[in-house]
Specification:
Layout (H helix, E strand, L loop, with lengths): L4 E10 L8 E10 L4 E9 L2 H6 L6 H8 L3 H8 L6 H15 E9 L5 H11 L11 E3 H7 L14 H16 L6 E5 L5 E5 L4 H9 L4 E5 L5
Parallel strand pairs: 1-4, 4-5
Antiparallel strand pairs: 1-2, 2-3, 6-7, 6-8
This protein binds magnesium ion (MG).
Magnesium ion (MG) binds next to β1 and α7.
C-alpha cells in the first residue's frame, strides 16, 4: 500500500485576489515534515470560462499582473483544454482522499488566499471540500517567521504544481530542527554575560562562575 500523507501544500493560479477569485489552475503536493520528503503531486488546469460561470471573479489588477509574468507560466494558463471547474474540484478531492489521511492539514500561501478560494469554489459547486476548516495551515506565516531560510524554486515560477513543490520543500527546511548557534551564559536579569560556540566544559564552568547565571541555547539573528 502506498504511503498516506498528513500534509498537503496547495497552490492556485487565479485571475483574481479576493475570496471568490476565478481559478485557472490547481496544484497540490503531499509532503512529510518529519521525513523531510516531498510525496506525489496532482495538477489540473481549469477553464477560466467555467470558473467564471461558477461564480469566480476576475480582477483587472491580477490580469495586468499575469501579463507581466514569464512566457512559460502565461502560456500554461492561456492555452485551451483546461478541465471544467466542477470536474477539477471533483478530481482534486478524489486525489486528496486517496493519497492523504482524513485529518490532512492543507497549507496555502496566505491565511486568506488558496484555502479560502478553493473552499469557496467547492461550496459554490455544491461539492464537499476534501479537508476540514480547522486543518487550514498558513505557509506565509511560517515564512514570515523564518526570513533567514531562503526558498529554492523548483520548475516554473507561477505554475501551480511547481509553486506548491517549492513551497513544500521550503516549509520542510524551515521546520527542520536546527542546532543552536551557540550557548549563552545569561545573568538572572536576562543579560548575556558571554557565549560559547558549543555546550562544552568551558561554557558549563563559565556559567557556574556567576551566581544565578544559566546556560541557554541561543540563535544568532540573521544580518
Ligand atoms: Mg502559484
Amino acid at each position: 500500500m502506498s504511503k498516506i500523507y498528513s500534509n498537503v501544500m496547495l497552490d492556485l493560479e487565479t485571475m483574481g485576489n479576493g475570496p471568490d477569485a476565478a481559478i485557472v489552475a490547481i496544484g497540490v503536493i503531499t509532503f512529510d515534515i518529519e521525513g523531510g520528503e516531498l510525496g506525489p503531486g496532482y495538477y489540473n488546469r481549469v477553464s477560466l470560462e467555467s470558473s467564471v460561470q461558477g461564480g469566480g471573479v476576475i480582477d483587472a489588477g491580477t490580469v495586468s499582473w499575469w501579463l507581466q509574468q514569464g512566457a512559460e507560466a502565461r502560456q500554461e494558463i492561456a492555452r485551451p483544454g483546461g478541465l471544467r471547474i466542477a470536474d477539477a474540484l471533483h478530481q482534486t478531492a478524489e486525489w486528496i482522499g486517496n493519497t492523504c489521511e482524513e485529518g490532512v492539514q492543507v497549507w496555502g500561501n496566505g491565511a486568506s488566499f488558496d484555502n479560502v478560494i478553493l473552499r469557496g469554489a467547492y461550496q459554490r459547486a455544491g461539492q464537499t471540500c476534501p479537508w476540514s476548516w480547522w486543518n487550514d495551515r498558513c505557509y506565509r506565516t511560517v515564512k514570515a517567521m523564518h526570513r533567514d531560510v531562503p526558498i529554492e524554486r523548483i520548475g516554473t515560477h507561477h505554475n501551480a504544481l511547481s509553486d506548491a513543490a517549492s513551497q513544500a520543500a521550503h516549509l520542510i527546511k524551515m521546520l527542520a530542527p536546527r542546532p543552536p548557534d551557540g550557548w549563552a551564559v545569561m545573568s538572572e536579569d536576562g543579560r548575556i554575560i558571554t557565549w560559547y560556540p558549543q555546550q562544552d566544559h568551558a561554557s558549563i564552568s563559565a556559567a557556574q562562575q556567576y551566581p544565578g547565571a544559566i546556560l541557554r541555547a541561543m540563535r544568532l539573528e540573521p544580518q
